[in-house]
Amino acid sequence: MVPVPLAVLLVLGAAAAALAEPLRFVDCGSIDGSIQEVNVSPCPTQPCQLHKGTSYSINVTFASKIESQGSKARVYGEMLHVDIPFPIPEPDGCKSGIQCPIQKGRSYSYLNKLPVKSEYPSIKLIVKWELVDDQDQMMFCWKIPVQITS
Asked: N or C, which end of the chain is more exposed by having fewer CB within 10 Å?
């Protein structure tokens, strides 16, 4: 029999591992890079339940196919095939885990936050996240379904 404190740790460890599961995503036009993995935490099931007033961690592992001095993120909420810009705290990829200049053939971990403001409506939509290089070409683009809830 497993001691109670150890059993609690095992359950918590399993829950934490479930929160970090790679997501199923749609690649929506990665040209200058290839996505290896997308993680949104916490998001144990899809569509991701995004609670108002909460911030979510984004981690994208990708390989660059080009050289670039910098990168910039653009995030949208896609509803009825219309992209509505979604502000993020730090659009500069070089301040989001990527060591710049970006080198061809190297893998990077892009890290950012997705804040869900209290005033957002409760709605189902698609989050579309793009990272463009210094020539405004798509390093990566991915989409996931989400549900914004109270």
From this structure: N
